[in-house]
Amino acid sequence: QALSEITGMGGGGGDLQDLRARPLTERRVDMHGFCNPSDFQRSPYLSARGNIANIFCGSTEEGYKAYHADKYDEDKNPNGIINFGTSENKLCFDLMSKRLTQTDMNLMEPPLLQYPDWKGHMFLREEVARFLTYYCKAPAPLKAENVIVLNGCGSLFSALATVLCDPGEAVLIATPFYGGITQSVFLYGNVKLVYAYLDSKITGTSTRPFQLTVEKLEKALQDARAEGVTVRALILLNPQNPLGDIYSLSELRDYLEFAKRHELHVIVDEIYMLSVFDESATFHSVLGMDRLPDPQRTHVMWGISKDFAVSGIRFGTLYTENQDVANAVASLCYFHGVCGPVQHKVAQLLRDR
Questions:
Q1: CA 220, CA 174: separation in Å to the nearest integer?
Q2: Distance from chain centroid for Cα 343
Q3: DSSP label at residue 21
Q4: For 299-338, how does the pLDDT look when each residue is reduced to its tens digit (9 = 90+)?
Q5: Do residues 113 and 258 both lie within one domain?
Q6: Has residue 18 been placed in a domain?
Q7: Tens digits of residue pLDDT in 118-152
Q8: Phi then psi dihedrals of residue 197, to 5 deg
């Protein structure tokens, strides 16, 4: 239904002009941040979903084309374009290229060239469990059977949205947030985002700008329910992208208790967990908590794109104690697997403390 509303195809959805004229509260699928609807030409070669995917692709393509045609270079092209649009760390290339070309990386055994367990090779999942146990300060060793490996955290967001929500249902998230999540949860799963709006100035019970509180989560949830939107999960980004906020243990516990009260799954994205450099700030992983309020509905993500500055090596990992969720996500790993030789390289990288 949401797709037909946006593309004006079937279901009495109306056209894009009508949709744009409707109040924001009546259109939870926030497509208009990506392109101007008046510029959208529906392709007769694509399905409704295909047209939506085309919008997402086209909205970024123009900027990238301009950037790649005129890249900034301090000496050769000082008036060129600087890309502020991609969250990518390029500062460690010298270190990473040296480590990734050492001889222990170049293994080519038959199991690496064959179909793996779709959750990932067990040698890698065991290494991920050990790595997260150490760096998340887990009170007990994390278990390899609770680890799933996919080709990046975008794929994980997509898979989790698809298996936790039905089409047209929603996930709650504080805004501002990393915009790629919109695309990840919507393109396959047709899952919407409901926003808990954060204030840029200190207001009410807040003690700092952009502070996330349970009250703001409650308001967003109740507003969505009043509009007839079913919310199935809460996304927490910690450290937060783009704000850089690092949640305290008590804040994390409050958010998780809120989710438990409303039987919401919690997807915790900790992809920047090893990139905290302010000595006055201490990162606390959800996996380091003594007791999770609702362990069967708490799912933690991490990847190597940011902390290891290798976003081109597509690797993301999920830790969940819920085997139903793990198996459902694993069925989608068929489409989002990490190739065997790369799994070996990542395991070696994580093993090298």
A1: 9
A2: 20
A3: H
A4: 999 999 999 999 999 999 999 999 999 999 999 999 999 9
A5: yes
A6: no
A7: 999 999 999 999 999 999 999 999 999 999 999 99
A8: -80, 130
Q: Do the domain assignments include residue 112?
A: yes
**E runs forming strands in the chain:** 147-150, 170-175, 192-197, 231-237, 265-269, 298-303, 316-320
Range of the domain at 329: 98-351
Structural contact between residues 156 and 193, judged by C-beta atoms closer than 8 angstroms: no
171-230 pLDDT, tens per residue?
999 999 998 899 999 998 999 999 999 999 988 778 899 999 999 999 999 999 999 999
The whole-angstrom separation of Cα 82 and Cα 73 is 9
Enumerate residues 6+ apart whose C-beta is below 8 A from 321: 146, 295, 296, 298
Token pair listed for 25: 């509260």
Residue type at 279?
E
Place of tokens 């804040």: 251
Distance CA 144, CA 128 (A): 7
